[in-house]
């Protein structure tokens, strides 16, 4: 079976852990429980008749206490950048992280998840954001870890992308 | 190598019989510290040092599904993806045999549904033996987690609070704008607003407080409400904010809304941080009547966690460095330049007509526009250049590496060209432009505040010059803007102090008409500066909206003059100049009707003189107003014809009686062929449309003779008379009656 490393990155409290839990265990907890360090989960998905095991690296959110550690990205085929639709600042962090990831990984596939779509959005990606992030609009999802909206679809999409890279590569 | 360690351990055991076994001792210590220690072997597995702690055995069994792990040999890389990743960096440390260690950072391993382990790996060399320690941090984790959880909860709350304060202040301002009536003497805050936790104050332009709520008293620790009435906070706020926002004075005076955060002091001299919004409140004549001030004490946000403050260096709307960051950066760069002897340039950008965009489209779309501008700015500058969003529609650029002024002009031009493009919204597009002021260190200021002020003046000058352009700081621009602010200030009291007067210039018939006509021309006798010509104050009066009151005064004074002349037996028509603003923002027809009635004047004795600029916008509406004026019986003349938007197609749509040919054509008569052709064509065309013609600026006999030949109806100019005082006007008419 093919195994692929996928890193979840983004600002603190955007819902990275909740997205993974929703995808892996179909569980959502309303309470914000901050991640420290890294937690690795896995789930198998079937993509184009192939079973792919996604190794999901849930990496502690970036803030003034925690620097982004590029070494965690080693060997990753895909990177899921998560932002919070209710906090305009989180897209700025997403842009900074994308820049840093690109310095470490040359061939990774990217997905942008704008999470918490169950709440009223307070921002939308601007021309500036899309230019900086350089992520195809097909790879941007409005997700809700709470309701599960688009979560399965998004993780399946990253699985397809990393599989395609392998096939094409 | 690992084998060697075990051998040593075993021999040591034999030779130290009776003494505590050092290997066992080490194992016991490691166990007590919850550390699993291993020697790395180049065969890809790890030999444990002593017996690993139980937690590790349990975890390893779960990971490898082994019933019981092989003695001492553990395949950590295969079983633990996190360790596998760490080994890449660890191997470097081991290969270097360096006396240093490398920590992996924490990671979480799930043991079962009810328990998790929080681990950290350390790679090190001990006597050149490569060692890997797995440290169980589960016991300490809770404390660490609690600290991080609290800090992040706080940061999250602060972030939400800042957003909601900003939002709430904007909503309150809109609400107050709707409910407050500047002309009423009995405004009161509703109990809801009185009890608002956000401070509200409404004051006059001089700071005299009219309304305020309890929260304002609380922020400033005032003991009694009376204190506030005596001492306005507006001046204090402006002085305090000016340290960070030198342009605050200009922004407020020019009638724009201002928002910012700064340090303030209460009556007990205790320092506090406030977020303040000052918004002008205009009266029905579109003049600033009051200021709405809305403030929140944000000290708790600012002072809560110093690290979190670092996050506040970014503007949430554009994600560019904010004003605080800008000041820091500018001070640093000026310091660097002082030491290196190099120059730096500051560009101050202000979007043109942004207030209108904000009012028309709402804050969300306005934010979108600001964001697009920020992107475009960054894209047309080098990475080493610094861009900040100072708030509202203002941006700043700091440029350190440039060769000369021409290079700066090129950069400014590039910014201008890049910004001046359509911005696409969901269902429409909008054109955006900016006015740019440029100041250079050290020529235009050696301190940050002076440099910013210079750039701000230059930016204001660029706006003056017609917007969508850049200007370098110069003594002229500073003088000009200071003068403008001085005039603007003076205009506010000029009417009340009776400083305006009208002069009258006759318009002489050179054709068949026997009508007596004069044009009323306004002059301002400034108490300290003497005579100020209309060229120096009309545009400022138009911009500030004072022109509407001035226009009403002119109408009244001219009608009074008609009445005085009529009573003296002189029947003459007076034409008065009317501003486009009067058409747009006042009920001109009603004003004219009531004034004619007040002075009991025959409407045919009054003429309304307009310029072509009134037709730039809403032409149909202007035509309706002109027709209504004509219906009253007053005549309409079009001034400065030929210099502006002269179009034959609109001329036939307008209800005009008189067309005035601009002096620039007359001055070149009779010798300039082009002027001859233009003047001849205008007169012929006007006559065909039954419109009479006045030639302005006639100064010599040759011009007069030529105009007579072309059947021009009236002439006006120094050849006949300069603008006259009332007394001189009487003398002139008396001499005419004698003749």
Automatic annotation (TrEMBL), chain A:
SMART domains: RAB (SM00175), RAS (SM00173). It comes from the Bacteria. Keywords: GTP-binding, Nucleotide-binding. The keyword Aminoacyl-tRNA synthetase does not apply. The keyword Calcium does not apply. NCBIfam families: small_GTP (TIGR00231). PANTHER family: RAS-RELATED PROTEIN RAB (PTHR47977). This is GTP-binding protein. It comes from Aliikangiella coralliicola.
From TrEMBL, chain B:
This is cyclic-guanylate-specific phosphodiesterase. PANTHER family: BIOFILM ARCHITECTURE MAINTENANCE PROTEIN MBAA, DIGUANYLATE CYCLASE DGCP. InterPro entries: Biofilm_reg_signaling (IPR052155), EAL_dom (IPR001633), EAL_sf (IPR035919), GGDEF_dom (IPR000160), Nucleotide_cyclase (IPR029787), PAS (IPR000014), PAS-assoc_C (IPR000700), PAS-like_dom_sf (IPR035965). Its EC number is 3.1.4.52. Residues 342-475 form the GGDEF domain. Residues 484-737 form the EAL domain. The keyword Coiled coil applies. The lineage of its organism: Bacteria, Pseudomonadati, Pseudomonadota, Gammaproteobacteria, Oceanospirillales. Pfam families: EAL, GGDEF, PAS_9. It comes from the Bacteria. Residues 151-178 form a coiled coil. It comes from Aliikangiella coralliicola. Gene3D superfamilies: 3.30.70.270, EAL domain (3.20.20.450), PAS domain (3.30.450.20). One of its GO terms (molecular function) is cyclic-guanylate-specific phosphodiesterase activity. Residues 258-310 form the PAC domain. The keyword Coiled coil applies. Residues 1-23 are annotated as: Disordered. Keywords: c-di-GMP, Coiled coil.
